Amino acid sequence: MDAFRAMFEHVIRPVNSEEYWKKTGLLAPKPPTIKRSPGRPTKKKRKPDPVDDSPDAIKGRRIFMVTCQKCGQSAHNAKICKGPPRLKPPPKVKRNG
């Protein structure tokens, strides 16, 4: 307990300005050197908004319907199509007139 009291016996009291500082023969403290870490700097990522994370929010979700090129129906593609092929429309002819 005596060591504890001896350690905290002195009290650091705030001083109004530098002119009231007591001069000591000790060296002045120096700030630590700044070292750049190696590698590419990290990006500052935006924190996600808690409103966007709610389960009913479909802000970024897009609805995409697949349409078959063979029969023209939706919900499947031509690779797995089992239906008959649709009739192709006749080619359009331009008339000059």
Radius of gyration: 39 Å
Number of helices in the DSSP assignment = 1
How many strands? 0
The fraction of residues assigned to DSSP E strands is under 5%
Query: What class would the helix/strand composition place it in?
Result: little secondary structure
Question: How are helices and strands ordered from N to C?
Answer: H
The main sheet comes to: none
**For the terminal residues, how far apart are their CA atoms?**
112 Å
Shape designation: rod-shaped
Uncertain regions spanning at least 5 consecutive residues: none
Share of helix, binned: under 10%
Instruction: Report mean pLDDT, rounded to a whole number.
Output: 78
What distinguishing features does this structure have?
little secondary structure, 97 residues, 6% helix
Outline of this structure?
It is built from 1 helix and no strands. The protein has one helix spanning 2-7.
Describe the structure.
It comes from Arachis hypogaea (Peanut). This is CCHC-type domain-containing protein. 6% of the residues lie in helices and 0% in strands. The longest helix is centred in the first third of the chain and has 6 residues. The model has no long low-confidence stretch (mean pLDDT 78). The radius of gyration is 39 Å and the shape is rod-shaped. It has 97 residues and is mostly loops.
Question: What's the layout of helices and strands?
Answer:
Layout: H1 2-7
Protein name: CCHC-type domain-containing protein
Region (Disordered): 23-58, 75-97
Biased composition (Basic residues): 37-47
